[in-house]
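HUMAN: Would you supply a protein with fold tokens?

ASSISTANT:
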Amino acid sequence: DADKDALLETANALLRPRFSDALRLQLDKGLSFPAARQAALDAMGIELVDHIIIADDDFVSMAESNLISYR
């Protein structure tokens, strides 16, 4: 759907630079990557609920597989 694609492109363009900057600030404080990622997301008011890995014709939801837990 063209409207959905346009919305996703806009969100990506707006959020990616802000997240990169927020992550860099947290890493500069000496935090580990997972802690820095969480602090950057918290600073932006974003809750990460899953991490999905896609390969070939398959995917893995880290949350559903209990491989990772977010809050």
Notes: Residues 53 and 60 are 5 Å apart (CA to CA).
